[in-house]
Amino acid sequence: MKFEPTIVAFLCNWCTYAGADLAGTSRFQYPANVRIVRVMCSSRINPAFIVNAFLEGADGVLVSGCHPGECHYINGNFMARRRFVLLKRFLEHLGIHPDRFKMSWVSASEAGKWTEVVKDITDAVKILGPNKIKREQVWMQQSL
Amino acid sequence: MDATKPLRNIAREILSRDDVACLIGYEKGSYGFRVAPCVLKDPDQADRLVFSPLCVHNLTNYLTLENIGPLAQKDGDADKIAIVVKACDSRALAVLMAEKGIDREKVVVIGVCSSGVVDLKKLEKRFPNAVENTEVVRRNGAFSVMYQGETVEVPAEELLSAKCMRCKNRLPVVYDELVGEPDEAPGDEFADVRESEARSVEEKFEKWHSELEKCIRCYACRNICPLCYCSDCALDRLNPQLIRRSVNYQENLLFHMTRAFHLAGRCIDCGECERVCPQDIPLMELNRKLAKDVKELYDYEPGVDPEAKALFATFRPEDPDEGIM
């Protein structure tokens, strides 16, 4: 069977979630591998959420928010940027391939960019194959 | 240079002040190469203090633990705590002050210029089973170790702890009293981090898989850390539970990733977490990687300026957009 990755996407309520919504209403086609978690701001995302998503069986994690300077909460995405640029390098140090974790800026009107971002990470993760750091009980549930 | 004598004099003076409740310093330990932290309350006790290359502990941890143990019994107006710090420990103080974790007015800082402490693991490997309490003295480029009645000279590089070989500044950042004079620090080029960065992702995965699997989750690394002082720790919480209690590679990865990331832009390279680790996990490699990236990406160095804002509490619009689509 062909490997279909699971991508967990944390999307900011004000920009990327609306952008993904627009992609849906505009009938843009994009991979159905992405599972969306809506959060109020990209800076609401704790780095532990990312690793937890990997442990729960995600093959890739996407964090997406408003473009710099367009945050609904004025500077939340600037804070998030510092955190996740650093986290990406740190995850690589721990042995999690940098292609598995991605960050993007997608505004509410950029449905086209959203489909590009999803295609991009899905293709990258497909090449990498299944994630090796799943929690063991997750493996057991899948083999049942 | 022997710092013990001037340190005792200063300590005696400080302990006789009315506004100082106690002094935290080092005293002779019970056996072998041990030096133990001590809390002194009386000027007469000042002669118990020692300072030698064996004083590896970072005592600033006690300042945020002030409500437990002997520090709890403070009386009336005597509300200041005096503390002996090395240069690296003083950087922890600077971060604590910047975060308003401690009140500078309530602390009397005795800075001691140390020219490097020993690595106890290296020392005990070379001189095993030292029972009687012995001493190590720094003489220029060498340590002279008293071992089983003899004095052995060992070149400094063979015993010096790793953090001292890459020390950035031997002069304490904050101090009220200074003992000794700082010698030149070797400086830090992050050579060790660059070396580990050169490995492939698979090699890194294998390395940390085997290292983190060893972890028994004793939480010693968190408890010893002078900068892990939140009373409500994310690693302990049950609701929401970020980290499960099982001890396996997966949960340990989450634990160590969270712990190290909470110290990003805060870790001052005192190396205490690695020293106390009963499983010898190279925890500083995690902290050092973050320190290097923080320096590289944001030109930020913790513990240099007691007034500086925390790394993640600030931003610059021109921060790098590395890898962001």
Task: Explain how this protein is built.
- The complex is a heterodimer of chains A (144) and B (325).
- With 144 residues, chain A is of the alpha/beta class.
- Chain A has one domain: Rossmann fold (3-Layer(aba) Sandwich), CATH 3.40.50.
- Helix content of chain A is 44%, strand content 16%.
- Chain A contains five helices and four strands, in the order βαβαβαβαα.
- In chain A, strands 2-1-3-4 form a four-stranded parallel beta sheet, sandwiched between helices.
- In chain A, helix 1 packs across helix 4.
- Chain A starts with 6 loop residues before the first strand and ends with a helix.
- With 325 residues, chain B is of the alpha/beta class.
- Chain B has two domains: 176 residues, no CATH class; 123 residues, no CATH class.
- In chain B, the strands form two sheets. A five-stranded mixed beta sheet of chain B has the order 2-1-3-4-8.
- Classes of the chains: A alpha/beta (144), B alpha/beta (325).
- The interface between A and B is large, with 41 and 42 residues.
Structure summary:
The complex is a heterodimer of chains A (144) and B (325). By secondary structure, chain A is α/β, with parallel strands linked by helices. Chain A contains five helices and four strands.
Q: What is the residue-averaged pLDDT of chain B?
A: 88
Shape of chain A: globular
Tell me the count of domains of chain A.
1
Looking at the structure, the CATH topology of chain A is Rossmann fold
Low-confidence stretches of chain A: none
Which CATH class of chain A applies here? Alpha Beta
Distance N terminus to C terminus of chain B? 57 Å
In spatial order, strands of the major sheet of chain B run 2-1-3-4-8
Main beta-sheet strand count, sense and barrel state of chain A? 4 strands, parallel
* Approximate shape of chain B: globular
